[in-house]
Design goal:
The complex is a heteropentamer of chains A (612), B (344), C (102), D (478) and E (168). Chain B is mainly α. Chain B contains 13 helices and two strands, in the order αααββαααααααααα. Chain B is globular, with a radius of gyration of 21 Å. With 102 residues, chain C is an all-alpha fold. The chains are: A mainly alpha (612), B mainly alpha (344), C mainly alpha (102), D mainly alpha (478), E mainly alpha (168). The interface between C and E is large, with 72 and 82 residues.
Chain lengths: 612, 344, 102, 478, 168
Amino acid sequence: MLTNGHLVWLILFAPLLAAGAIMLFTRRLPRVSAALSIGAVVLGFALSLKLFVAVLQGQPVVAPSVVWLDLGVLQLTWAATVDRLSALMLLVVTGVGATIHVYSLGYMRGDAGFARFFGCLSLFMFSMLGIVLAANFIQMFIFWELVGVSSYLLIGFWFERPSAAEAGKKAFNVNRIGDFGFLLGILLVGSVAGTFNFAELAAKWPTLGLSAGTLALAAGLIFCGAVGKSAQFPLHVWLPDAMEGPTPVSALIHAATMVAAGVYMLCRVEWLLVASPEIMNLIAWTGGLTALMAASIAVTQRDIKRILAYSTLSQLGYMVMAVGLGATTEAMFHLTTHAFFKALLFLGAGSVIIALHHEQDIFKMGGLARKMPVTFATFLIGTLALGGVWPLSGFYSKDAILLAEMDKNLPLLVLALVTAGLTGFYMARALIVAFLGQARDEKVAGHAHESPLVVTLPLVLLAVLAVVAGWHDEIPHFLKPEFHEHDHGSLVLLGFLAIPLTGFAVAALLYGRGAKDDAVLRRLLGPLYTLLENKFYVDEFYLFLVDRVQGGLAAVCEGVDFIVVRGLGVGGVSGLAQFAGWCVRQLQGGYLRFYLLFTILGIAAVLIWVGR
Amino acid sequence: MHLDAVIWEWIFVGIRILAIFVITFAIVPYTVMAERWVCAWIQDRIGPNRTGWFGLMQPWADALKLFLKEDIIPNHVHKVYFVLAPTLVFLPALLTMALMPWGSNLGPMSCVLADIGPGMLVVFAVGAFSVYGIVLAGWSSNSKFPFLGGVRSAAQLISYEVCIGLSLVAIFMQTQTLNLTQTVLYQAANGWLVWQQPLAAFLFLICMFAETNRAPFDFPEAEQELVSGYNIEYSSLKFGLFFLGEYANMMVASMLLVTLFFGGWSLPFAPFNAPALVWWVGAAHVAIFVAKTACILFLFIWVRWTVPRLRYDQLMGLGWKVLFPLALLNILITAIVLGLRGGA
Amino acid sequence: MMHVGLIHYLAVSGALFALGLACIVLRRNALLVFMGLEMNLNAANLALVAFSRYGGHAEGQVLATFIIAIAAAEVAIGLAIIVALFRQRSSMVTDLLRSLKG
Amino acid sequence: MEFYALQMEIATVVLAVIGLLAGAFWPKHVSLIRRGLAEGALLVVLASLFLAFPQHHAFFGDTFVLDRFAIFFKQILLGTAALVLLLADAHGPLRRQGGAEFSALVLLAAAGMMLLASANDFIFLFVALELVTITFYVLNSFLRGEARALEAGLKYLVLGALSAGFMAYGLAYIFGATGSLNFDAIHHALHGDKLPQGVYAFGFGMVLLGLGFKMAMVPMQIWAPDVYQGAPTPAAAFLASGSKIAGFAVLLRLIFADLLPTAWEAQPVLLMALAAITLLYGAVGGLAQTDLKRLLGYSSITNAGFLLLGIAAGGDVGHAAVIYYLVQYLFAVLAVFAVLTVVANASDTADRATLAGLHRRSPLLALALLLAMLSLAGIPPLGGALGKFFLLLAVLLRARVDPAFYALAGVAVAGAVIALCYYLRVLRGAWADPAPDAATRIVVPWTVRVVLFICMAGMLVLGVWPQPLLNWALHCLH
Amino acid sequence: MTAYDAIFWFFSLALLLCGVLVLISPNAVASGLYLVLSFFFLAGLYVLLQAFFLAMIQVLVYAGAIMVLFLFVIMLLDYRESRHWWHGNLLGLAGAPLAVAALAAALLPVLKRSGALAAAPEQWFEGTLENVMTPVFTRYLLPVEITALILLAATIGVVVLGRKEKQP
């Protein structure tokens, strides 16, 4: 008899089995592969629903566990956490995942790597579900890395394109930086507390009596992981580039699930963060800054997917900010609604992109509303939800966060409000420019027509969710039964509603008359526009740091300068490592006698130490 | 120890050393003489018979002639090594002779100059040095034929050294000693080893031919190919030393063969099968030893004038593909036999 | 002057070892490098024998015996490699062996 | 007769001799002989799993011990040798040169390593170690027609002989300090009050360095890149796997026999410093490498540094981690060398360009390379990640007592990050770079397929289900 | 100073002198011969240490076999260094003293302490054939067998390496 506990494992391993079957047996059979993959995720969704209901009814769900590692001093159990947090997350991941799987059927039709795509997708689902269900840090880290690998595979899916391969690599490398901080944090926590288990740690952590420094270090390192995965400043650079992947991938990984994993993880280890107020503050400000910066960059973007990508960054910043303020429930709430409407937006964009034969510049679109009514309608819903317009879900979740800020941190509130205004503006801009008015480029947008049912059906489903998900604050109540809305009167809420609407209005004003390009905005913002268009030059700054200074100067100055410039001048760890590598290679110059001398001196050094 | 005892000890040692030198210097020329006579006899002609009584003074005349010749050191040679080489050929043979059990004892005096414990090892250690002389001679002469001779000699000596060692291992296993005197005593008590270890004796004999660079293994000199090999550039006294060295080595080889396989100074019946108790038996032992050595020497000479020289690859093939496995086989057989006998 | 004892032998052994090291660093000729290595092994042997003598245990000399045998094998291979190299490069200067580096 | 304790070694040597004789009598069937030997070796390993070994006895006058630890490593090492033989069969230059000697030598080296795992006496240890070393002199320079192989052989020989000289010299001082060369006797002497600790530590330091040569530990690391680059690929593979494993097995054995100088156990400053330097040296040295085999040389140094972490940290977790790491490292590194054996078949050089477009030319090879590199880089769920995790865990556990170990952990993570860069660069070459026009599909011989499948399975299984091996390792320790 | 001491000093100084000559001789053959000579003196030291067996083996193996091999190779290749070893040999001239100094720094403190390790004279070991070889063939039988394997491996190696490359 399968209990709910067994079902947990079934949810997790069904996608893995599907992925394995596809990789090993059905690579040449695209339909069978897709069926396997979709079957697995739909099954997962159904079971998740069952679990959700069980959790809602207060039934304890205990997944069978096995001792995975036993080192004597330390025991690691392979177990699953099924609580309200993970039950909700399961539902989001499998639900959004299922719609996107179906959508991919249409989007990827005819692609040479159709089967491979579904294989990778299933692998990703497996890894993501692993993160959600992880019961200890090690388990989480393993799936954390697996998610990285599978997203690397998906971003670089069209590896024939150099930019795609490059983007995949960038995502991977940037994530590694965050992950190593994460790993260090995990090891630190584990070694200090003697266990990696979340439940045990949560109980034990406050009682260990650690110094403030250790607490801050642990929390900070763990936060590093979230910074990488949830693309917070300064490791945010990979996410926009990751849009090189197929659009369903962007929707699934870079909007709904994977990037949210960082936020989910932070919520999971709330007890750890709360122990260090300094780090909480840092988290809040990191999130706030990311939100504002990304939103302002999005204002000037022309590529529809990039606009959505920066929007995602911005919303992730919101969630992280909420976590930093201790409002994890609100963060999860926003995560859930965001998953729905952002996936919806991405899929809508995908629908447009198919219709326009892979044209992504919004200033070449226009007038699509009439030709693609379903897509337009759903996109509109998504836009309004993202903007936070009542009574759509975004309004409730965003307001929950804003209200929490109002209680705790006014400067951040201002920041968040500005962001909200910008959000309204850029979304309206995209919507108006892409869908309304006349076709700006007849060649591109003239012959567009509505996508098939397999594409639009998911859109409609997600649109429904985007509308209803926030009603009655069901989700936060589910997460935390004692949750109650901060009551600040309807005037405040009206104010919050006014801000995005202002954004909408400004956009309508600027672009409503069928602007051919962005000249108006460019004139209006002046040099700021250039700055934003170039994403604050962060990428260039990194490039500059790594390439120009190092490469250029090193070419000029050999010898002593070499040490100064590479070793000290730039001061980067990378420079130091490169320099050390250069030194080592000078040692390994091939001269046998020098090898001998080196060895002898080394031995003598050791012996002098030993024989002291 | 009393002073006079020490002095007497030293005097005995002095006498023995002198005896060795005298005997070597006396016998070696007559070995040459013997070689010429046997050669003549085999070739059915008359050997040297003019100088002195039956030509017996011939070697001395030859020696005198050699000493009086002009000593030429060519310009292109490496001088130090060129001069060093002949000495290095001659000295090891002389040193080895000091270890030979010429007889049991003459009164209170042992007939062995240096009765060192593991004497056999010393013989080998010292004997290994004769190669240096030849190699150096070949190299320092700095010209083609000597060089080839030197290289051949080195290869040959190294190759056959292995077989000698292996063939003797069986002997050691049986006699349980490395001491030459003890080996002879063992044979005196248990019969000659040549009957018990015929294969070892055979191998040892062949290897000795190679080690002494004698025909059919005289490649380092190989008159027809290398003119005269490593000693081409030598003349006068230095050539004489090579000459002397070759025959001295031959003598040492013969003595070793006698000592190890043919019962040394013993004869298989009383009173010659035990160390001498009276002086005349001691003297007889010496005589027996010398006689046996002479027989083996005759064998050496006889072979030289009857068996043709091998080809060089045949020499190496013989050494590594025939003698080497045979030696190993011999050890195996000996081990099995000794093991069956219940651990000798 | 004190009587010769263990420490003297050890000092000689150390000096021989140092000479071996000096030889392998000083000389470019591969053969000389090998000779230096032989000196090292012999220095070790001397120390072993001296410790064995003065400590009263046989193991030192046993190990020395093995080391001598092993040294022979080592030299044989080393010389074979040198000969093979010489066939290709007509040189046994170790400083010229620099195709592997960096 | 005590020889029944030696059954695996005897079987190995017999196989070697059979190979040698068969190669002499049937020179036309060298390939068959090689595969036969490999299968024979695998059979011996399989048989040994079911054989009852007389355990925990000291044999041959206490010079030889046979315990779980020894048997385990014997099986691992012989298995490695078998896989290396399979690789050798697919290696172009070796095939062209012909002769069955390579196989015989590999088996002889394996016999030496297996003996090392049982050493309980320094004389025995030295002689067995030299068997391995001397065999490797030949293996590394085996391709006598290639100047690079000869150069590698010569460098390995000279540095190896130097380390042997130091080791012998160190043994003299151990002998002088304790009056014995037997582990048990030294152990007793160490805990007596008369022992001159300084002299003993001096000797032991030299022995450690001598073993360090096998492991590629600083300051004995300098040969590794050159030799890995120049040696025939299967020889380098054996060097990277077998030789290193044997070196660490011996070091563990010395630790289990409680022979570390007493001062080192309380304050393993030396071991910590060596571990840190070794780790960083390999990591930074590999950064700018373009030749893959050379890169693996540096990788080998880095991994030696990681393994030394476990040695320095000590404790059950540390030692078990070392054992685990060795086994998983074996799979990863053999997989890489297997790939290189096939890819660089023609030239025996492995510039990064030779890998370009590998995923098009042979998906199997590319996949194996991917898994191996990810494992070496320490990315879950492969064995390498867990190995690094265990080692770091051991270090951190020790750090609770001795805070200096926190710094060591930091260095280890830094080293891992740096090394990661070059592992991933290799992958980019294989997966992202376009294949050269002239490139054709690579045919992977079945021997290499076998090796690859074993290695991939090993990496995955160890990464997902490490407990059996860990249990076994912990079991070995007690 | 007893005669024993005098002989010791003679042998050891001669040994070291020969060692120095090995490394400074311009000619490889000369180096080799000095090495042979130094091995003789080393054997002399063994005799002083009552290690008769080892002294014999030393001469037999080192002087009789190993060094002959060296000379043989030197001659076979007829190789002469193109210039004197000290020309342009900065690495060697700087490195060798450095190496020696480093070793001395490591060794001297230990040397001082190890002089006291000598046992009472009545316990000193006499290295006769029986005393040395009995443990070799009883307790250390296995290493003997391994040494045989070493020699086998070396033989294979030399045969392989020495074989001429087949002309394709």
